[in-house]
Write a structure and sequence with these properties.
CATH class: Alpha Beta
Number of domains: 1
Radius of gyration: 16 Å
Largest sheet: 4 strands, parallel
Strand order of the largest sheet: 2-7-1-8
CATH superfamily: Guanylate Kinase phosphate binding domain
CATH architecture: 2-Layer Sandwich
Low-confidence stretches: none
Number of helices: 7
Amino acid sequence: MPHPPLIIITGPSGAGKSTVVDEILTDAAARRAMPLRKFVTCTTRDKRPGEKDGRDYHFLSRKEFEMDLKAGWFFEHAEVYGNLYGSSRREMEKLFKGKKPIIGILDVQGAKTVKNIYPDAFTIFIDAPKKSLVARLKARNPDPQELKRRIAKMEKEKKLRRRSTSPS
């Protein structure tokens, strides 16, 4: 393997991906068993309460993101719910220089792109019952139209996962 192991946590919005990764990264026993470095992606969305720049995301203005995109600094990116998200080549290159396994959180499409670029990456799909996901999304106070879009996307992501993990 030319780089440290890469673990991508993916799943629908509200499934608890960040909670799982945060727990792994803060649990002392888990850190001793497998010290990990977090791959932090970029976004143009506003910070949610408790989020920190550089820990949860690299929060960029839309102009900064678009300039980095034009310069070719993202190896994958997407517009989701009106915000831009992307994975920085610089961030990944920096982490690949180390020896510790890398863990990152991506949406389903981003995980698929990363898996195409790094076929040896491990992907873990985090899921929850639809009722729980909807409740978590509502707790984030999205407007009704955004909630509708997120639920529709969640259902597509679950179907995509089933197709990609079913035997050929």
